[in-house]
Amino acid sequence: MLRWLIGGGREPQGLAEKSSVQTIGEEQIQNPYTELLVLKGHQDIVRFLVQIDNCRFASAGDDGIIFLWNAQTGEKLYELHGHTHKITAIAPFSSSDVTEAKADLIITASADRTVIVWDCTSGRQVQKVSCFHSTVKCLTVLQKLKVWLSGGSDLCVWNRKSDLLCKTSHLTDAGISALVELPKNCVAASVGKELIIFRLSATNHESEGWNIVEVKRLVDHQDNISSLVSVNDLTFVTGSHVGELIVWDALDWTKQASECNFWDSSVHPDVQPEIKLSQSPHETSVQHLTSDKECVFAAVGKGIYVYNLQMKRVIACQRAAHDSSVLHIEKLSNRQLISCSEDGSVRIWELREKQQLPAEPVPTGFFNMWGFGRANKQANQAAKKMQENIPVYFLELVGDLIGHSSAVQMFLYFGELGLATCSADHLIILWKDGERESSLRSLTLFKKLAQNGDLQLRL
Questions:
Q1: Which of 80, 267, 397, 446 falls 20 to 30 Å from 145 in CA-CA distance?
Q2: In what order do the strands lie in the sheet with 393-402?
Q3: WD repeat ranges (predicted)?
Q4: What pTM, to 2 d.p., does this model score?
């Protein structure tokens, strides 16, 4: 393993391109990640990371190999071989029966048209399914029903033993690109521009008692749906390649709100506008969505947008958060966000409230004497009251993590254990809190010295 110290800001690679992107100097007081471990093993792009438990995670990508890692030490636990083509989807599946102990499983799908269930404790294959007519692009586990779903040219439902319980008829050649669980045993599947709502039902615990029925098609998006996220039992959100964000009711599947002007500077006047003749789909695509109870956080093109669900509007944004497209974003338990990009960087942001200036008073003078200023005064008071009631936020860059040499595909946040990132450079990096790691090393040293001292006293 290698341990490096993180450097300061990036060297510009073309000032004209990066003039609108925020930079941060060497003094990154709020960035705890001053050490990193580089994990090697993959031979191609690493696209997926999935958390197994508080200390273990799996990685997978275009080499078709799955690795299991220890997030604390960076130790490689297992190297799983079974696929012959790139991995297209991965999902954790922790389950337990009354007669069996809890098992930590992961499910992987590949372009070789197979799906494999792995045991994370032993590193062995539990089941391999090879009956697919097309590549499985997404996997979702429904823990309450103890089943998992595979999405491709059709939607299939499987039990823990990988028995096929039921499936839909052939949908499209393009197939299902994403799945999200909804209340009342329903799921939403994105198929091109459409959202299809399916309901699962089980009359008994036998395989022949299961059924899956299409109950509704939602056709509100103008382009292919690129991201889905469940907010809570009442709400889920979708995003498309042309920058549309739609908020849906998770119970009756009606459209609650939408945002289609992420790139329009007139909608977000606090942001410096860019002079462009047109916006390409790549610059406006919603690459990833995540949420907490109050907001949806959207990675749109090179930018990050915070959409408040109650206000039904964007409350903060960084239109040029990175030099290239933002591929993944996560909200931490505090007011911080982490984002990663095609430019190879990982950045930490903090959502802060702006200190607003008080509204200017209406000037006294000739018009005020005759009452002409009364309407203006009332309007001014109304505007002032509105300003006081609506807080204004902004995203401030507080950390810049430079270690990968190519696009960072995604990351996992492990709290005090740090951050795991994967990249097109074939590497995984564990970013560590330097002060915590130094304290742990000192504590280990003191324990060894104390043990040696006791040994000498006994001798």
A1: 80
A2: 326-331, 336-341, 345-353, 393-402
A3: 39-79, 80-128, 319-359
A4: 0.82
